[in-house]
Amino acid sequence: MIFDIVMPKMGESLTEGTVLEWKKAIGETIDKDETLLEIATDKVDAEIPSPVSGILVEIIGEVNQTYDIDTIIARVETSDSVEVPAGKSSPAPEGQAPSKSQASSRPAIAIQAPATFDDSRVYSPLVRSIAAQEGITPVELQQIPGSGFRGRVSKKDVLFYLQTRGTDAKQPNTIKGLEETGLADRVSPEDVEIIEMDSMRKSIAKHMRNSIDTSAHVYVTSEADMTPIMTFIADHNTAFKAKVGHSLTVTHFIAMAVRDALLNFPIINASLDGAKIIKHKHLNIGIAVAVGEGLVVPPVRNAEEKSLLEISDAISEIVGKARKKKLTLEDLEGATFSITNFGVFGNLAGYPIINQPNVAILGVGAIKKRPVVLETEGGDEIAIRQMCVFTLGFDHRLVDGAMGGQFIQEVASNLEGAVNNSSLEDIFS
């Protein structure tokens, strides 16, 4: 029996996935629950196990191509004794894998080459369609030079071939992929390197552009004296780590300060859906984590119910999972406010883009020692303090400047009074 492998649905809001890598080749045996391929969605990369045991007889989903959910991307031949879900399989001649022409007659949403184009190169549906309409033979198609990514034949290559069929004309020396920038005819292929974006970078690019197009970004900045917190961490981190198993960081205190401020400014924890304001009942504080060449924002869920110790445990867990690439789709969904710390790279300040569908994001700068003026009973004094600049980006469609300014000042105040000469037991009791 032949079992259809479809693009799985990885979440309620996701309608498509991108094939990253096939872990099995055609003709190889695969066991049930063994990894068949790796896919990427807008949220997370995931390994997809085979739902049945058998032999992989057809791969339809091309690497780096995106398909709608429930689209057939491969087929596995199972033995008659293997139990498969109803409606997912159809018979094939005994002892034979289905031919491509037989497979194309099956009711499926798939991108698949006709049998006449069965060669080692991969062609897009558009190229195959043009070739069929113009009577280009399989032998001719194999000999057309490709100017696309990794030598793939593009529509332009096929049309040029048709225009110069039977002549000695050579393929124009232009760079595929630069048409939109206007550089295609002005840059020599020898002077540049074209690199295809991976799925995570494509997702980030799409998400950030959408945020700029959606939200009316406004920024306010403030600063906080982080000296008491930094001293507290230096004095107590060894004992804290021995007790709970992970280090104490400034991010834990920042998340707690944000949590307390959000309780007083619940509209900053909301979302917008057109003209509707969605007020979230829980504070799910997203923590931006750099992973490889990308960025993910897993949230600390229900922060309003957590102590500082519980918040530190939650942050340690999600950061650890992110860096080990163990995050699931559920780990990444649901942030209602976000924190991004570009200060870890030494940057003093920045202007972060709002993480949709949030209406605000807090940017954290580097904590630097510098001279500041302190007001004391004996008058003004200059002292060396560890200062940090915070930037609040907010959506002016919902949050006005006064509220944004008050919120960030409360965050700063919460941080400056976070420890108040307390002991480790006092803070984490």
Task: List its salient traits.
single chain; 429 residues; alpha+beta; OB fold (Dihydrolipoamide Acetyltransferase, E2P); Chloramphenicol Acetyltransferase; 3 domains; 5-stranded antiparallel β-sheet; 11 helices
How would you describe the overall organization of this protein?
The strands form five sheets. This protein has a six-stranded mixed beta sheet with strand order 10-19-18-17-13-16. It has a five-stranded antiparallel beta sheet with strand order 3-6-8-1-9, with no helix packed on it. About 8% of the residues have low confidence. Helix 7 packs across helix 10. The protein has eleven helices and 19 strands. The chain has 429 residues and is of the alpha+beta class. A hairpin with a 2-residue loop joins strand 14 and strand 15. It is elongated, with a radius of gyration of 28 Å.
